């Protein structure tokens, strides 16, 4: 029988941390199996992790039956970013966990699609204030995936659970 991890154990995996130190964040995430297989690439990351842009090029291995981007690949390109950004920016005194997500497919995606995830300082401070006042919160983020012309291909909504540890 497996035991349930304690709240203090919700932290980055040691292997991920070693790889990030050794080859950097971009290379670490770009060789992550699901992203490597889907063709998802990190395009840019701000030094303070306040913005991350990812892209997905159309390939034979990530097309669906009708020749457009596979919906699972579109979703996966949006999956970890807000959790990761919050973990980096809030630090070790917080537990951050993906709680739920939804995606609305607006238009068939072809070519290269991109999404930029932003966590401005002002929003980070609102999150900190709410967690300090209530000890935990569910925080919603919304982002779009756009094609090469800037047309919205999909809308994604993420809900992240954030809890203060040790208080």
UniProtKB/TrEMBL annotation:
Gene3D superfamilies: Hotdog Thioesterase. This is Tetrameric acyl-CoA thioesterase.
